[in-house]
Amino acid sequence: MVNVAILDDYANAALRLADWSPISQRAKIQVFTHHLPDIEMISALQPFEVVCTLRERSRISREILEQLPNLKVIIVTDDHVSTIDNEAAAAHGVLVCEGKAPDDMPAAPTSTSEFAWALMLATLRHIPAEAQRLRIGEWQHSLGYALSGRTLGIVGLGNIGIRMAHYAHAFDMNVLAWSQNLTDEAARKAGAKRVEKEALFQDSDIVSVHYVLSARSRGLVGKPEIAAMKPTAFLINTSRGPLVDEAALIAALREKRIAGAGLDVFDQEPLPKDHPFCELENVTMTPHLGFVTEVSMRRFYAGAALAVTAYLRGESANILNAAALSPK
Questions:
Q1: What sign does the dihedral 225-228-231-232 (CA atoms) show?
Q2: Which residues of the chain have pLDDT under 50?
């Protein structure tokens, strides 16, 4: 029997959202519902030939790969995952394959933009804090911020950013946008005004980040950008933690140089319970929920199950590190 591991299934949903029956006849499947730190991962994954990951929840480095002699294939849920060392996997003869769902399966292209808007409203209206107060017998304490007439600054006017601009108009907001290659025409088409980066941070009441993380974009929102924000402004990040200089943001929040932040993503995930963000009252935090909907998860796990099935049949599809096939 082939040992198959499914990592970071926090909701314990993988086996019920996809058909794993063709696999269970030839393999033993183990689901890990908690995150495995590096040392624990090395120990726990020793018997496994196949490892299925979800998005970027697990980091599998060269050091980890060197200590997993039985590993033959890693299944990822999209081809943009940056947490798997593809080169090291190739060097150790480990395939990295993308699990693709059937084309006719429903998708959820609006899940992150919808969530970003919900997080924005929750942050500006202090919904989590007030809901918690109500549970302990207290009544309202805070003053909320209305969106109508305010300015939303969108950093990264891609598919998600464009949807954010559309939502903003429904709330009677002004919309500014900036990205490195954004044109005036593209911004106008999305219902936004293109401005320079500094102007966006200076003039926006809410800044929402929607950028792909890369070596070039890491730290895109740094100390100068945060310093340019109004003391009444909010920062929303549902994209990737390292896009924002974490130390600069923590300092600004501690010193009340900005009004607050709504964060769904962090430099380290899961977020340690002693992290400085956990001590700040002007931060609304969620555990990377932007993409987590039942529709999205069905697609991810259906793709993973199909990829494992193909591997068990001796087939290799959607290989992301083709060098692993080279003769050693």
A1: negative
A2: none
**Residues with catalytic roles:** 240, 269, 288
Number of domains in the chain: 2
Instruction: Answer whether the bond into residue 231 is a cis peptide, omega within 30°.
Output: no
Cβ count within 10 A of residue 41: 22
* pTM, rounded to two decimals: 0.94
Query: CB atoms < 10 A from the CB of 232, how many?
Result: 11
CATH number at residue 314: 3.40.50.720
Residue 279 contacts by C-beta under 8 Å, 6 or more apart in sequence?
none
Structure tokens of 172?
């009677």
What are φ and ψ of residue 258, in 5° steps? -130, 160
- Give the range of the structural domain holding residue 21, as residue numbers without chain letter: 2-106+294-325
Per-residue pLDDT at 322 = 84
My answer on whether 128 and 7 are in the same domain is: no
Asked whether residue 260 falls in the same domain as residue 320, the answer is: no
